[in-house]
Amino acid sequence: LTSMGEPSMDPTTSSPDSTAQQDSLFSMMDVFLISLITGLFTYWFFFRKKKEEVPELPKMQSVAAPVRDSSFIEKMKKTGRNIVVFYGSQTGTAEEFANRLSKDAHRYGLRGMAADPEEYDLSDLSRLSEIDKSLAVFCMATYGEGDPTDNAQDFYDWLQEADADLSGLRFAVFGLGNKTYEHFNAMGKYVDKRLEELGAQRIFELGLGDDDGNLEEDFITWREQFWPAVCEHFGVEATGEESSIRQYELVVHTDVNMNRVYTGEMGRLKSYENQKPPFDAKNPFLAQVTENRKLNEGGERHLMHLELDISNSKIRYESGDHVAVYPANDSSLVNQIGEILGTDLDTVMSLNNLDEESNKKHPFPCPTSYRTALTYYLDITNPPRTNVLYELAQYATDAGEQERLRKMASSAAEGKALYLSWVVEARRNILAILQDMPSLRPPIDHLCELLPRLQARYYSIASSSKVHPNSIHICAVTVEYETKTGRLNKGVATNWLKNKVPDQNGSSSLVPMYVRKSQFRLPFKPSTPVIMIGPGTGIAPFIGFIQERAWLKQQGKEVGQTVLYYGCRHEHEDYLYREELARFQKEGVLTQLNVAFSRDQAEKVYVQHLLKKNKEGVWKLIDEGMAHIYVCGDARNMARDVQNTFYEIVSEFGSMSQPQAVDYVKKLMTKGRYSLDVWS
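Now predict its structure.
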């Protein structure tokens, strides 16, 4: 404002003209000032109003709504539940056990719900005591090398960092593991220990299920002691209600738009027709099989090499990663189930959850046909668990068959033994059970509700993305065996893959797949030596490793010693990738190629025998060369025998006692210098 009035302050310029100008200026200024003041007042008024409204924002529920949805406490209160069973599941078994425990609760006058920890805020565990007779149960599977399952990763991270007070929480844990693995039931043990450290009260001892033995029996044994402990703790009694309770209701669609019907998709409807990245477990990529060749020259088995085209998928992978494929069940098995149950398999239906509050609206994508469900969504080849037999028993019209089914589903020693021999050891799948029990004819919709989901199969990738950026290679052996009942059982995925014929178009060559990241990685420095041990199809990731080392060498990088210990039955029968390995050795990429032919001589020779034979050189590479060791293949025997061999080598050449040698190898594992990619 002072700058605008400056001309009137100079007396030497005063004149009638200037006075008139001044009057004019002031009148203009008056208008301007009034306008400005009015504007400022208006601006202030509205600005002040907005400022006053700001504190009101937190009251708007739309902002907080998602948080409310993720509260399992609010859900339990709303639906009158007092037991929550969380599951950490990779293959569906832990989820299945969690569902069984939550269904059990009604027999004791309690109400349970199974919950995926990925969908909820687990810090709410500290509030569970707000609910009367509340209990949290955790069915936690251990995956890989003592890791949490994908859906339990966030929960695991929270447990590690949490300093919450869980003193009001009552809990119990059942772990699912496999004793052939180094870190048996690590996740179950950790959750049990950590919850206690945070002040929670354990109301029943930790259960440790072993999939190498009889996981189902381990679970039943734990469960039959768990519920009496719950009853004692809360002062409740079993109601005696043993009746079957359906979780889903059947809706048959007689007039439905077929464009709204699932035909095998894992997540989004029509996702196979309209593919959109990113691709994962719920949105697999349909890869074209460009090569499918038999690797072995003879013998009864069929070993194969497949190449999947991932061009334009934006899928990235590293050597050592796994490729997951979603297989389909054999159509002849599906048709036989339809025939034996007298069902039109092309009936379009939905199974809708009777619990409207449940996050799981259907057991598999719906609406769909029975044929699609039995082909793509349900496991019809594994022996069914005891809960399936228990639920099916009511449909057996023959009293003897009904009693037999109920006995196998019971916790009595005789029943467990019968289930083990008649179902597990005889490898009877659901079709075999229906065939061997002529009076058992359940409604197909209830059968579909009870059967577990068909799971993706994982294979170690047998290629390097540096050499094959648009292709993923698989090395596999078809599974086929005769059961004690004389039936021929075939592996779902390997036989399905075997029939994938490379062609220009058509679904016969398409494989739904995605990549799962792994910790099985080459050393950061190419100059670091590597010792790879992989008999049979365990050679798969090492083909990728060697390809990558060859590529690095071509780039002018200094590549350390690359040593392979491979094993097969016969040199002229099942020596996989023979030509490729010979070429890599000739080019100097593969420094050492040690092959054990186990059955070409009277005494069997395995990879661990060759390691012992070269023990001094092996120790030198580990001790002086700081070599990284990789083991891939069978966990039950091979991986264990190889590890014991390393204990011996370390003990002898490192001048250590047996316990010191064991500790030395364990430290190599901790440092990432001894890696395993094993299966049982």
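DSSP finds 22 helices and 23 strands in the chain.
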